[in-house]
Structures are given as structure tokens and as C-alpha cells.
TrEMBL record:
Membrane-spanning intervals of the chain: 15-35, 47-71, 91-108, 120-144, 164-185, 215-239, 251-270
Protein known as: Cell division protein FtsQ
A GO BP annotation: cell division
Naturally occurring in which organism (per UniProt): Butyricicoccus pullicaecorum
Source organism superkingdom: Bacteria
DUF8171 domain residues: 16-278
């Protein structure tokens, strides 16, 4: 196979990872819309997201493709298809999700190592939540958003946002991010890669490891997220719309069907490609 053919094949594989992650995570985010929230005192038990889906794929495949797919899936299926779009304000969540999943995927050198998969999952989740927390604190500090005190907590934005961070990390982060990854990543390793015509990741894979360039790109992305959210909160959202049918049951159902169809189509294509290569 020529170099150009190899590059084309690699790009095709990355695209498949992107679309698969986008559809599966988009479906998952819509599903979380249907899960009720419970509150005991000041502690809220809610499923913020099923981030284990993109985290798992990022640890097994190309981290950047999975990270961008997750952020795009959340934007398309849980925002646009539900009839709402926050304009520039959507960029903050898009970038922080991308960075969190990307970091987790890069941290895993050996997907068969359950400890490594679990640690990467919780670190990636914590990074995403921490970035969101910092942004929320800065919005109050720069007076672009009013501080809303929570009964039972000190009247400090640091205490309020810090508690929310720990609440989400210890509940959603452990139950719906870390634990599923600890089980799924080693379980799927070596089984799902052939469907894309790929070799399983090893410690020497180019997509493994954190280096100064990776850190610099993530920091730059986070700075852009901060600027975008501050600008949007200050009234510079550029494009901001909400349809009359926003977040209706019909919109959620249609979104789930579309996401499921895309995911199934990708899986079918992956299976056919795998069978074709096996035949050769």
C-alpha cells in the first residue's frame, strides 16, 4: 500500500471514530434528559453525562477524533436538535469536553491496564469539570454574571462552585465515567479495533502520552473557552436562538432516533469493511 493510500485509510478510520463517537454520545446525552434528578439536602444526585462512551473510544482509538466527536455530538443532538443554540456560549462546553476527553485518551498507554484506564477517566472528567468551574467563577469575578448563593453553603462563589464540582465528580464522575471505563476499555481492547482495520494501541503508539505540545494546545483551547463564555454571558453570543418546540418530547425522540440510526449505520459499515478485509 502506498503512503497516500495509508494516509487515506487512516483519515477514513479517524472519520469513522468521529462519527461513531458523535452518534453514541449524542444518543447518551439525549437519554440523560429523561433521567430525573434527586436532591438530598444540598447534595444533588443527577446524571450529568455518560462521558464513559467517548472516554472509552478515546482510550482505544485516536483521542482527538473521539474528543471532537463527543463535543460535536453533544452540540448537535442535545442542543441544535432540541431546538436551541447558545451561539458563542456553546464554544465553552465544546472546548472543555474536547480537552477533557483528549487528555484522558492520551494518558492511556496500555488500554489493558484497568488502573490506568480508571485513572485517565477520572482525570479527564475532573479536568472537564474543573475547567467549567473556573469559567463559572470567572464570570462572577468579572461581574458578567450575578452570584447565586446556595442555602447551606458559605456565600462564596468559590465554595458554591467547588461543592458543585465535587458533587458532579464524585457521583457522575465515578459512577458514569470511571467505573464503566475500568470495565469496558480492557474488555473491548483487541476486539473492536479490527472492525476499523486498525491494530490495537500499544505503549509506543503515537497517540499515547502527554507532551509540552499537547499541554500548550489544551491551555490555548481553555483560554479560548474562557473568552468565548465571558463574551457570551456579557451579551455577545452572536447567534442565539430557541425554537418554540425546544426540549419537547418529540424533539428528544427524533434526536434519539437520528443518533441511533447514524450509530447503527456506522457499525454496519465497520462490520462490512472488516468482513471484506478478512476475505482478502
Amino acid at each position: 500500500m502506498s503512503t497516500m493510500q495509508k494516509q487515506s485509510a487512516a483519515q477514513s478510520q479517524k472519520l469513522m471514530v468521529f462519527v461513531l463517537t458523535m452518534s453514541l454520545y449524542g444518543l447518551a446525552t439525549l437519554f440523560t434528559e429523561l433521567i430525573p434528578k434527586f436532591q438530598v439536602g444540598i447534595v444533588e444526585f443527577s446524571v450529568e453525562y455518560f462521558l464513559f462512551i467517548p472516554l472509552t473510544l478515546a482510550m482505544l482509538f485516536d483521542p482527538l477524533s473521539a474528543a471532537l466527536g463527543a463535543a460535536t455530538g453533544e452540540l448537535v443532538f442535545s442542543e441544535i436538535m432540541l431546538g436551541q443554540f447558545g451561539g458563542l456560549g456553546e464554544l465553552e462546553k465544546f472546548l472543555t469536553v474536547t480537552i477533557g476527553v483528549y487528555i484522558a485518551g492520551r494518558l492511556v498507554r496500555d488500554p489493558r491496564n484497568r488502573g490506568m484506564a480508571g485513572a485517565a477517566a477520572i482525570i479527564g472528567t475532573a479536568a472537564q469539570l474543573a475547567m467549567g468551574t473556573v469559567v463559572d467563577i470567572l464570570k462572577v469575578q468579572f461581574a458578567v454574571e450575578d452570584f447565586e448563593a446556595v442555602a447551606g453553603l458559605p456565600e462564596s462563589v468559590f465554595a458554591t462552585e467547588g461543592f458543585a464540582f465535587l458533587n458532579d465528580l464524585l457521583f457522575s464522575g465515578i459512577l458514569f465515567c470511571m467505573l464503566p471505563c475500568v470495565y469496558l476499555v480492557p474488555k473491548l481492547y483487541g476486539k473492536i479495533e479490527p472492525l476499523l482495520g486498525m491494530q490495537p494501541r500499544t505503549e509506543n503508539s503515537a497517540v499515547s502520552g502527554i507532551n509540552p505540545k499537547t499541554i500548550a494546545v489544551c491551555v490555548l483551547g481553555f483560554v479560548c473557552a474562557i473568552v468565548a463564555e465571558l463574551a457570551a454571558t456579557a451579551g455577545l453570543s452572536l447567534i442565539d436562538w430557541e425554537a418554540e418546540w425546544a426540549e419537547s418530547g418529540t424533539a428528544v425522540a427524533v434526536g434519539m432516533v437520528v443518533a441511533a440510526v447514524i450509530a447503527i449505520a456506522v457499525l454496519v459499515v465497520m462490520k462490512k469493511n472488516s468482513e471484506r478485509k478478512a476475505a482478502h
